[in-house]
Specification:
By secondary structure, the chain is an alpha/beta fold. The protein is about 40% helix and about 15% strand. It has four helices and five strands, in the order H-H-E-E-E-H-E-H-E. Strands 3-2-1-4-5 form a five-stranded mixed sheet, covered by helices on one side. Helix 3 crosses helix 4.
């Protein structure tokens, strides 16, 4: 009888190490969560609906479709060829601004790559417009 009572006393589970591990994990997750930053693009949009930009002969219009296809002068262009096309058109008309017309369902990455290509081509007058 004495033996069974002492074995029951020795079988108690000590929860202190488990609680220590839980608190250490909690601190780890709190610390790592503060270092996660969301990447975004801040765009200052004017109040109200901006008027659609009409493509005229003086501007270089780059349209982006919903499927991220790039169209310059009624031709589909690869994203790697955007800079060369803008350079060529800018050489013909140095006063022409570049107007990027992204579709609302197109990706922002494509629009930013077009703007970067235009800046690398030497055009500093780059505008965003609406798709007509």
């Amino acid at each position: 009888m004495n033996r069974s009572r002492s074995s029951r006393d020795n079988t108690k589970v000590n929860l202190t190490p488990m609680l220590d591990v839980v608190f250490i994990m909690l601190i780890f997750f709190i610390v790592t969560a503060t270092f996660v930053k969301e990447v975004g693009l801040d765009v200052n949009r004017p109040e109200g609906d901006p008027p659609p930009v009409s493509p005229d002969k003086k501007s270089i219009v780059v349209r982006v479709t919903s499927g991220d296809r790039i169209i310059i002068a009624q031709r589909e262009v690869d994203v790697l060829a955007v800079r060369a096309n803008i350079e060529r058109m800018h050489a013909e008309n140095p006063e022409a601004p570049v107007i990027v017309q992204p579709h609302p369902e197109s990706s922002t990455v494509t629009t930013v790559r077009i703007i970067d290509s235009a800046k690398l081509a030497g055009v500093h007058d780059v505008k965003l417009g609406q798709v007509p």
